[in-house]
Amino acid sequence: MVAKETENAIDRVVVVGGGTAGWMTAAGLASMLGPTGLEITLIESEAIGVVGVGEATLPHIKQFNDTIGVDEAEFMAATSATFKLGIEFVNWGRKGDSYIHPFGEFGLPNDGVAFHQYWRKFAGQPGVGTLDEYSLPVIASRMGRFQPPSDDPRSVLSTYRYAYQFDALQYAPFMRRHAEACGVTRIEGKVVDVSLEPERGRVASLTMDDGRTIEGDLFIDCTGFFGLLIEKTLETGYDDWSEWLPADRAVAVPCKSAGPLLPYTRATAHGAGWSWRIPLQHRTGNGHVYSSQFLSDDGACDTLLDGLEGERLADPRFLRFVTGKRRKLWNRNVVAIGLSGGFLEPLESTSIYLIQEGITKLLELFPADQNCDVEITEYNCWMDLQFERIRDFLILHYNATERDDSDFWNHMSTMQVPDSLRDRLDLFRAHGHVSAYDHGLFLVPSWVAVLIGQRVIPDGHDSRVSRQADADVQRHLAGLKSHMAKAATSMEDHAAYLARNNMMRAAA
Description:
The chain is of the alpha+beta class. It is built from 16 helices and 23 strands. It has three domains: 9-81 and 166-242 and 323-389, FAD/NAD(P)-binding domain (3-Layer(bba) Sandwich); 103-132 and 142-158 and 406-494, no CATH class; 249-320, no CATH class.
């Protein structure tokens, strides 16, 4: 054990709970701070199950893996992963509609004017086509093609990023091996008691079911919805957002793969929620997120099973949750990461992103000692912002719709949304502008993808578009659309790319 330099020094971090959140946290801290002498211990019990349904990610996961030294091919083989260029949304604006939210740009900006402004002016005219036809990752997704982005900023092949779709039950063991190789100590067992310091109310130690006492200076709560430290011990409180996001249940089941191995996740809207489809190398992940106010568990399960594309591989598993977040994600000397900090339904694959963001911000602000009120305040403000901006983006999917075919959709399309979202909607409807922010997950192309995809068409367009001759703009649009289609055609079949890189054989 490293000797403490001062009484308040933070030399020992204890991560309580394994799973994706626990092992990502342990691996991140060990990779970046382990060389400083920081002791990192993770406590988990094999008797406690994990949620294990966070199988779709955002491009930020690649940066996290790269930062902590994870080899991509090794990671993909170990987790049966596939590549992901975006998310397809089916039946959201209207029944029968389909659009893709891509991990990339639409077109190319011109003189500081967003591309969709040019498209808006000429939309509906012969040959212009849909906005999707000007997004390389959308076209490639529809074709089932993939290749890594180009490093050449002049190439249209540099206008996108990619994420992964992987088996979450395989990902945690993979991260465990990486964390233990970096010096993390794992303790098997259950925590049966938590001791607090009498003066400051901070967590002092944990008592295990075999009588051992585990002391620490900073504790990371990765105990899932239970929130052993952040809530059961410190009674932090919870901000309930179910008034805007009333889905409170999910049922999940894997099935055999059927059809082509597509490089995107699918989210299909139903009468009282939506279902996910995530193609992995060895199977397909499926689930149905729904509101128990509008649909029974049996009804939700029937909808899910009726929509499976292949043979069911396991019994359905049900989850219950309340959308929202802890009032403080860092309280005293406890940091909540993962489901212990909050839950936002996985409509935009944000669960692992929020884990990653919690780890990254903790590393950035990691304090030298327990006198860290400034760092705690900054961390909580930052994470509040992340949660709230994702919340608004998720509400957008439900509220920006023309569907009125069920009580659920009538409720979602007519409800009062947060002022922060209402202002953004009003601005876009007027002239197609999306107010950008310096910090937050979803940037302008993401908002444009969902808004246009769900038939929120601006009344006007940026006046600067009219500075260029119509004929010149239309020639540019035609050339760009053709160039995008050719670039996508030149890309390799997604399944063939995986096989060629030996990933599927290694995974098998």
